[in-house]
Amino acid sequence: MKDGKYPFCVTSKLKHAYPVRTNDEGVKVCSGTPDGPIPIDGLKAYHPSELQWE
């Protein structure tokens, strides 16, 4: 949460947001998703300017 950035993951279309946690191996994962913990590496990053509302 430093630099005003909150660590979270969002699904496509921003229907859900999940907190970022560090697992037992020290890997940052999206916590609480229906698919279980998902490693952050390999997920698409985005900038808030890309947000779209419906």
Quick gist of this model?
With 54 residues, the chain is mainly β.
Task: Give a description of the structure.
The protein is 0% helix and 26% strand. The chain is mainly beta and 54 residues long. The chain has one domain (2-43). Strands 1-2-3-4 form a 4-stranded antiparallel beta sheet, with no helix packed on it. A hairpin with a 7-residue loop joins strand 3 and strand 4. The relative contact order is 0.19.
Strand arrangement within the widest β-sheet reads 1-2-3-4
Query: Taking Cα atoms only, what radius of gyration do you get, to the nearest Å?
Result: 12 Å
The helical percent reads under 10%
Give the biggest sheet: 4 strands, antiparallel
How many individual helices? 0
Assembly context of the chains: single chain
Overall outline = globular
Class of secondary structure makeup: mainly beta
Binned strand content? 25-35%
SSE string: EEEE
Write the layout of secondary structure elements.
Blueprint: E1 8-10, E2 17-22, E3 28-30, E4 38-39
